[in-house]
Amino acid sequence: MTTISTDEQKAQGATARHVDVLIVGAGISGIAGGYHLQDQCPDKSFAILESKSTYGGTWTTHTYPGIRSDSDLFTFGYRFKPWMGKPIATAQEILDYMGEVIEENNLDQHINYDHQIDSATWSSEHKIWTLAGTQTDTGQPFKFTSNFLWMCQGYYRHPEGYTPEWPGMDRFEGSIVHPQTWPEDLDYSDKKVLVIGSGATAATIIPAMAPKAEHVTMLQRSPTFFITGRNSNELADTLRELEIDDDWIHEIVRRKVLFDQAAFAEMCFAYPDEVRKELLAPIQEILGEDYPVSTHFNPAYDPWRQRVAFVPDADLFEGIKSGKASVVTDEIETFTEGGILLKSGDTIEADIIVTATGFNLNVLGDIAFTIDDKPLDFHDTVTYRGAMFTGIPNMAWVFGYFRASWTLRADILGDFVCRLLQHMDATGTQVVTPRLRPDEQDMTMNPWVDPEDFNPGYLQRGMHLMPKQGDHEPWMHTQDYKTEVQVLPKADLDDDSLVFE
Ligand SMILES: Cc1cc2nc3c(=O)[nH]c(=O)nc-3n(C[C@H](O)[C@H](O)[C@H](O)COP(=O)(O)OP(=O)(O)OC[C@H]3O[C@@H](n4cnc5c(N)ncnc54)[C@H](O)[C@@H]3O)c2cc1C
Question: Is the pTM of this model over 0.85?
């Protein structure tokens, strides 16, 4: 890292520290960015800025009971570091794994914790980004400048989750908690707990709270698809027994998981009714013939339209079978002093209400972006391969996969950004900006994610904030790992969709 001593320094303020590349965020994506940059562009100086006082992002923010991945760690783990544990991991296991990556690669020296970035300004004159913010531990302002900005800030607002406004919430005499801001001292022993929501978070919290609580009720407006299975990987176990190298096991099992996932996704689209039956059958088997599985676990949408949450060892269903947990599919009329009155007229008593209702999409880390003094409206931009944006120079953003593990994309975009930086060095250029070519000015524009293809609530609420995509490459955000892993490494950087200066 250098301190800039040129005209830029005067322009940006004497305290600005300069690096070639600034990475925003020390979550799974930012740590991947640091690793790939160090590995593939060892001459580049870089810094990672992180608002929290530790790494991990999502896995630090969420501390609710049972917090775990719902993807397997062979693919949620990095390509370059074997995963040695069970496929579904706790937040702590993920943090331990990330900690090893940081330590083994000396990434700590590059991470600046407690750095909350508030603004990012691009100067075409100086060809640099200036990021300004506040050090949350000292209250001191800081400034960094960089040639390239690698946004790894995730996709949701960390400090608070999304809780809808329901009538009568202020009347409720118990506690209302959101999984994203779980109170450390929340005592739910022998309490009646009501969890609002039906996604992976609700499915995790319920079996984790059930043994200690008096009873846990899951209240959902509509059902979600779940897939159950043992939290183990037979192939990995066999290869371990055969004492195959860890690197090999990691790679082989990743390929197998990806193969199986792709086959499952194809089945969902080709034979949705059959897949539906296959997903529901094991639940019915656990809960017994009389249990109304079609009321509580049979969604109106087809499988894969929203993420299918994995329930390891069927713990959610075992909790229901034991009588310590139950599911109600209904709508909230109002909160009452002692719980919730439903539209059906039924009531649910509760001491604690957990609103597992998702998060608020955030755009570029809630950082105020300006390009040459003009405030950036991200929605006005069109994406280049779901990673860069028209009119935004020297910037890439890691937005992972919904249906496959997020980290797969963090790794392949790591390769892409490094190749782009190498290309700029080789061509002696300093600025790269995606721009629509003359014959693409009237291209049909589509939302960042096709709502027909994938439509969770947080995306529907926030789509108007997100960039658009065009109707052909390279202006698309495909969410298709199988294609991207082939296409991105070969993407032609000189096809005039990227303008180099
Ligand atoms: C509970 C939960 C479980 C999930 N489970 C899975 C799963 O099993 N599989 C899967 O593929 N995906 C899962 N996801 C999606 C998950 O968010 C991603 O997989 C992944 O962890 C995101 O990593 P990230 O580094 O891109 O972003 P994040 O984890 O969101 O990290 C971003 C970091 O950037 C920092 N940051 C943001 N803005 C600023 C700013 N202005 N200044 C400074 N720092 C900033 C944040 O503090 C944070 O540390 C899950 C999400 C949640 C909420």
Answer: yes
Q: What confidence tens digit (pLDDT) does each residue in 305-314 have?
A: 777 889 999 9
Mean pLDDT over 22-51 rounds to: 98
Whether 422 has a pLDDT exceeding 70, the answer reads yes
Q: Report if residue 1 sits inside a domain.
A: no
201 and 319 housed in the same domain: yes
* pLDDT recorded at residue 8: 47
CA 30–ligand 1 middle distance (angstroms)? 10
Q: Ligand 1 mean position to 185 CA, how many Å?
A: 24
For 98-114, how does the pLDDT look when each residue is reduced to its tens digit (9 = 90+)? 999 999 999 999 999 99
The pLDDT tens digits for 258-271 are 999 989 989 999 99
Residue of 72, 153, 156 best suited for mutating to test ligand 1, as the one with most atoms within 8 Å of CB: 153
**3-class DSSP state of 123:** strand
Using a pLDDT cut of 90, give the percent of the chain over it. 88
Are both 141 and 225 inside the same structural domain?
A: no
Helix (H, G, I), strand (E, B) or coil at 106: coil
Q: Which positions ≥6 away from 4 have C-beta within 8 Å?
A: 12, 16, 17, 18, 145
- Indicate the range of 16-20, 26-30, 254-258, 265-269 predicted with least confidence: 265-269
Task: Give the distance from CA 159 to its chain's centroid.
Answer: 15
Are both 296 and 315 inside the same structural domain? yes
One domain, residues 96 and 25:
yes
- Look up tokens 């955030």; give the residue: 362
76 lines ligand 1 (CB under 6 A): yes
Q: How many CA atoms lie within 13 A of 134 on its CB side?
A: 5
Q: Collect contacts of 490-499 with beta carbons under 8 A, ≥24 apart.
A: 491/385, 491/416, 493/419, 493/420, 493/423, 496/437, 497/384, 497/434, 497/435, 497/436, 497/437, 498/384, 498/388, 498/420, 498/432, 498/433, 498/434, 498/435, 499/432, 499/433, 499/434, 499/435
Tell me how far apart the terminal alpha carbons of the chain are, to the nearest angstrom.
24
* DSSP helix/strand/coil, 231: coil
Residue with tokens 């969604």: 299
d(CA 115, CA 252): 39
CATH, residue 104: 3.50.50.60
Domain extent for 86: 6-158+360-500
Q: Ligand 1 within 6 A of 98 CB?
A: no
The closest alpha carbon to 121, from 340, 383, 394, 350, belongs to: 394
When divided into structural domains, the chain yields a total of: 2
Q: Is 249 in the pocket of ligand 1 (CB under 6 A)?
A: no
Query: Quick one: pLDDT at residue 175?
Result: 97
* pLDDT > 70 in the chain, percent: 97
- Residue 424 in this model has a pLDDT that exceeds 60: yes
